[in-house]
Design a protein that fits this description.
This protein is an alpha/beta fold. It folds into two domains: 226 residues, Rossmann fold, CATH 3.40.50; 222 residues, 3-Layer(aba) Sandwich (Rossmann fold), CATH 3.40.50.300. The protein contains 16 helices and 18 strands. It has a six-stranded mixed beta sheet, with helices on both faces. Strand 6, helix 6 and strand 7 form a beta-alpha-beta unit. Helix 11 crosses helix 12.
């Protein structure tokens, strides 16, 4: 079905999220929706899906949908930026709940199994959602969106946590879905995905459409200029001298590994990139270094200099508390143990400083964390982590959901921290990002840690991640 949003406007108090936006997605096409963090992309799709009501404008000639249920009844499904499945329910139960099925128990399992088979998206329908890998949880989100016979599929950053092979499979699925007459709207910050999958592209900047055209008339430079109003500057990269050892592992064996111990040192001034496919032990490694997971090691020793800053992968469940203000979230992340009183004026002042220096777009220190766009939430979590001048910084997917300019900003912040003398350990699901930022490269496969030269080819690193070749 055609999805036509006509002159959509939406404001939050004095802040205009969307200004007279007209957007049309056609059957048989993948339509990419681009823009900086906070440009209004998610807001526009939330309106299309009935999660928000516009202040003005129409959807397919009407005033919009009263609820997501009404949108699903009209054939629209949405894959959200953050997982929405209920961890304690099985795959089948999650699908049945979203689709509004009457079936329960074995009948729901049978129906869910048929759906995943028809879609060609295999899932263990009897397994609980909390026991799925990140890739399978993302697949579950897509199946949930399509379980109500949706013919229009809205996807908000669906590849942010996927490895390269899973990204390719998802993009191919979207192309096939469109070829069969479906309508696809794809929000992404990765221009290579746009050129691999999309037919048309629309760009938003500060709530207004700056470009809408067929993709064959565009280039990465033209899209970048439409998104930010200028060319994206080339990233800076300066590798300073190595300092003292801040992280030392001796005969370390991660939980789940077979027998290969790892010994390594990480020095002040270094950025160590960790390449791995989800579920191979990188989470245990990073969280053990950060001191937030005590079960990551089977044997061996690990010594880490303090203080340590940790940037978790999921900003919404671990990085911040949505209903709390930004000042309160800063306090939770920085208040010393044993503190007997709180200087709220100072906390608000520190928060305002972080918002300015890290270009976090928010109404102020009193704004609720949940009111920020996903990218601005991530920038705030990073800013808070760096505020205490940590000696060691551990970052899980720190640029997930960020636009091109914000990604470069995060990379530069991590490089600056390393140049100031911190040891930085960073994992990204995007292998190209790991290769770009790392001074040294670790691969974690089957819970075993191997260091590769930074000039190792991308294909060889990919094989090492899959454990299909022995790195040399």
């Amino acid at each position: 079905m055609t999805l036509h949003l006509q002159q959509i406007s939406k404001s939050y108090g004095p802040a205009a999220a969307l200004r007279d936006v007209t957007f049309t997605a056609m059957p048989g096409q993948v339509h990419a929706l681009l823009g900086e963090n906070g440009a209004g992309k998610s807001t526009l799709m939330h309106i299309a899906y009935g999660m928000l009501r516009p202040d003005s404008g129409t959807i397919n000639g009407k005033n919009g949908f009263d609820s997501p249920r009404a949108a699903r009844a009209a054939g629209i499904g949405m894959v959200h930026q953050h997982f929405t499945s209920i961890a304690a329910l099985t795959v089948a139960e999650n699908i049945a709940l979203t689709a509004g099925w009457c079936e329960t128990g074995a009948a729901a399992v049978t129906r869910a199994a048929l759906i995943v088979e028809q879609l060609g998206l295999p899932l263990p329908v009897s397994r609980h959602a909390e026991n799925l890998s990140v890739q399978l949880r993302q697949r579950l989100e897509i199946v949930k969106a399509l379980a109500s016979d949706a013919r229009t599929l809205l996807l908000d950053e669906p590849t942010a946590v996927l490895a390269p092979r899973e990204v390719a499979e998802l993009l191919e699925f979207l192309r096939v879905f469109a070829a069969r007459g479906g309508t696809v709207v794809l929000i992404t910050h990765k221009l290579d995905e746009v050129f691999r999958a999309a037919d048309r592209v629309t760009v938003l900047r500060r709530g207004e459409v700056t470009l809408s055209d067929t993709l064959d008339l565009q280039t990465p430079r033209s899209l970048s200029r439409a998104m930010i109003g200028a060319d994206i500057p080339a990233p800076g990269r300066t590798v300073g001298p190595r300092g003292k050892v801040l992280v030392r592992a001796d005969q370390l064996i991660l939980y789940g590994a077979s027998s290969s111990p790892a010994s390594f040192e990480i020095h002040a001034g270094e950025i160590v990139g960790v390449a791995a496919i989800d579920g191979n032990g990188q989470r245990e490694l990073l969280r053990t270094i950060a001191g937030v997971d005590g079960v990551g090691i089977t044997s061996g020793t690990l010594t880490v200099a303090a203080p340590v800053a940790f940037i978790p992968e999921d900003r919404t469940s671990e990085g911040m508390i949505g209903p709390f203000t930004l000042a309160e979230n800063l306090l939770l992340g920085t208040l010393p143990r044993g503190a007997s009183w709180i200087d709220w004026r100072a906390i608000h002042g520190q928060t305002e400083t972080l918002l300015r220096t890290h270009d976090v777009r928010a109404a102020g220190s009193g704004a609720l964390a949940e009111s920020l766009s996903g990218g601005n939430q991530q920038k705030f979590v990073l800013a808070r982590a760096l505020a205490g001048n940590p000696q060691v910084i551990v970052a899980e997917n720190p640029t997930r959901g960020l636009d091109l300019l914000a990604t470069q900003s995060v990379h530069q912040a991590l490089r600056d921290a390393a140049q100031r003398g911190a040891a930085v350990v960073v994992h990204s699901s995007d292998l190209d990002e790991v290769l770009e930022i790392a001074d040294r490269l670790f691969v974690v496969a089957r819970h075993e840690v191997t260091e590769l030269p930074t000039n190792t080819s991308r294909d060889v690193v990919g094989d090492a991640m899959l454990a299909v070749a022995t790195p040399r």
